[in-house]
Design goal:
Blueprint: H1 15-25, H2 44-73, H3 78-88, H4 96-106, H5 129-140, H6 145-158, H7 160-165, H8 180-213, H9 219-225, H10 237-246, H11 257-279, H12 285-297, H13 304-315
Helix pairs in contact: 2-5, 2-6, 2-8, 3-4, 5-6, 6-12, 8-11, 8-12, 9-10
């Protein structure tokens, strides 16, 4: 029997009555604790499940991009990829998805004897949870860049006939310009750092929904529930629980000391791997989006001041000033012909 993580929500008064049943049938974490706890009122349980599936989209896309870098640029065949993923699964990337990816590279087609993964058409399907999560993030104003790119990457993969017709488009011929083993380590760092960003965005979305709905989702408990019986089971979920133990009101995992240090350590390899992909024409929508989010989140100033000036110029949408208190909005008559009428302000 396969036991799964359970994320019940609903009436808190009902939870004590069903708790023994749910926790008895739920998957167990490595320490024996049940991967099941009450998540929150109303639809909180369903929402947390949706976030789980969205992070799953991001994880799978990131692993696919690591595979693309290692196969197309480093020239690793399925047997070599199996060895790399087997090694990764014994370290910081230890997770269910890395584990099954290791096994997939070792599987041979019974008829041809070739690695089965090489015979599978590169056109991905999806059931919709990633799209739902991206839609919720847009409604709440949360930049869910990795998972959104993962959804679009599946959409692009499904356009197989169009991509075949686009062979007229030319790009660089992939050629590894560094030591292969060093590059494998860089890809590992890129995958690890991007994975941290994916989880950071997912938990930021749950924070926003908790504020919006009043559900009071316990992020630390959610991290513990995901340690067993679910697709995104990962060794560092315990570290996420510790982060929320240190600060229950943590706004973003990236500002937790442990994860800030981990991303800083992975940063140079992450940048080299993404840079190599860009230079060699290998698409890395999720990895590059993760890096762009990180650089944007750590930036004290972004070019949105110009964007606001443009919006005010063509639509009188107003702007705030750095030399005035937040919440005061201004409009400029940029052309001398627009008068003093301004649009109302609206922010997601």
């Amino acid at each position: 029997m396969f036991f799964r993580s359970c994320r019940p929500g609903g009436d808190p008064a009902a939870w004590p009555h069903v708790k023994p049943i749910f926790q008895a049938i739920a998957a167990k974490a490595p320490d024996g604790s049940p991967c099941c706890d009450w998540v929150g009122a109303e639809g909180a349980g369903h929402y947390v499940k949706m976030v789980h599936n969205g992070i799953e989209y991001g994880d799978m896309q990131l692993i696919g991009e690591a595979y693309h870098l290692l196969s197309r640029l480093a020239g690793l065949d399925a047997a070599a990829l199996h060895d790399v993923f087997a090694r990764w699964n014994k370290g910081r990337l230890d997770s269910y998805l890395i584990e099954i990816t290791r096994d997939i590279f070792a599987y041979r087609d019974p008829e041809s004897g070739k690695p089965l993964v090489d015979l599978i058409l590169d056109a991905a399907g999806q059931k919709g949870t990633g799209k739902w999560m991206a839609s919720s993030a847009t409604d709440l104003g949360i930049p869910l860049t990795i998972i959104t790119e993962a959804v679009f990457a599946r959409c692009l993969s499904a356009q197989k006939d169009e991509r075949l017709a686009a062979e007229v488009l030319r790009g660089p011929e992939p050629k590894l310009a560094t030591d292969r083993e060093a590059f494998i380590q860089d890809v590992e760092m890129a995958l690890y750092a991007s994975k941290i960003i994916s989880y950071a965005q997912g938990f930021a979305l749950m924070n926003a929904m908790s504020r919006e709905s009043g559900w009071t989702i316990n992020n630390g408990a959610v991290a513990l529930m995901w340690r067993g019986g679910c697709i995104i089971r990962s060794v560092f979920l315990g570290k996420i629980k510790e982060a929320f133990d240190r600060n229950a009101k943590l706004t973003n995992l990236l500002v937790d000391p442990y994860f800030a240090a981990e991303v800083a350590q992975a940063g140079p390899g992450w940048r080299r791997a993404v840079g190599a992909g860009v230079a060699n024409g290998i698409p890395l929508p999720a990895m590059s989006a993760a890096l762009a989010y990180f650089d944007g989140y750590r930036s004290g100033r972004l070019p949105a001041n110009l964007l606001q000036a443009q919006r005010d110029y063509f639509g009188a949408h107003t702007y705030e000033r750095v030399d005035k208190p937040r919440g005061q909005f201004f409009h400029t008559n940029w052309t001398g012909r627009g008068g003093t009428t301004a649009s109302t302000t609206y922010n997601v």
